[in-house]
Amino acid sequence: MHGGATSTQHLLLAETLGLAMARKASDILERHRASLTSGSAVVGSAHEDDDDQFAVDNAIFTAVLDAANECLGRFDSRPADDRWCDALLQVIHLAQLARLSADGLPPRIMTGSALPLDRPAVRRPAS
């Protein structure tokens, strides 16, 4: 036992952290989708505030996506650049599960609701 937590407690803590990170990433995606589709023009210091918020959101989202990609790499031997889309889909899927769990509905984590790892690779668009 380390830090007073058992192995089961460590797994539960890791799951809770992962779901919280996925929710945060999903909230960032939703916020930016809403701002892009609202069509509102921003002027002056409000624009600078939006730029600052975007920079913070970008750093958080990138860290979450990198962590998801690293975790997915434990089950998928493709290079990280080839897994990024699958990692993004996993983050979105986990955020949906986290919302269901927060609403009191039991998530179906281990019943085939996750993306299959043996599906054809999705390639990142050329930059």
What does this structure look like?
With 127 residues, the protein is mainly α. It has one domain (18-34, 44-115). The protein has helices at residues 7-38, 45-72, 80-102. Helix 1 (7-38) crosses helix 3. The N and C termini lie far apart (47 Å). Residues 109-122 have low confidence and may be disordered.
List the helices and strands and how they pair.
Elements: H1 7-38, H2 45-72, H3 80-102
Helix pairs in contact: 1-2, 1-3, 2-3
pLDDT < 50 runs, ≥5 residues: 109-122
**What is the number of E strands?**
0
User: Distance N terminus to C terminus?
Assistant: 47 Å
User: Helical region count?
Assistant: 3
Describe the largest sheet: none
Q: What would the average pLDDT be, to the nearest integer?
A: 77
Number of domains: 1
Beta-strand share of residues: under 5%
Sequence of secondary-structure elements = HHH
Q: Report the principal-axis shape.
A: globular
Helix content: 55-70%
User: Rounded to an integer, what's the Rg over CA atoms?
Assistant: 17 Å
Helix/strand-derived category reads mainly alpha
Describe what is shown at a glance.
This protein has helices at residues 7-38, 45-72, 80-102. With 127 residues, it is an all-alpha fold.
List the main descriptive attributes of the protein structure presented here.
127 residues, 65% helix, 0% strand, mainly alpha, globular
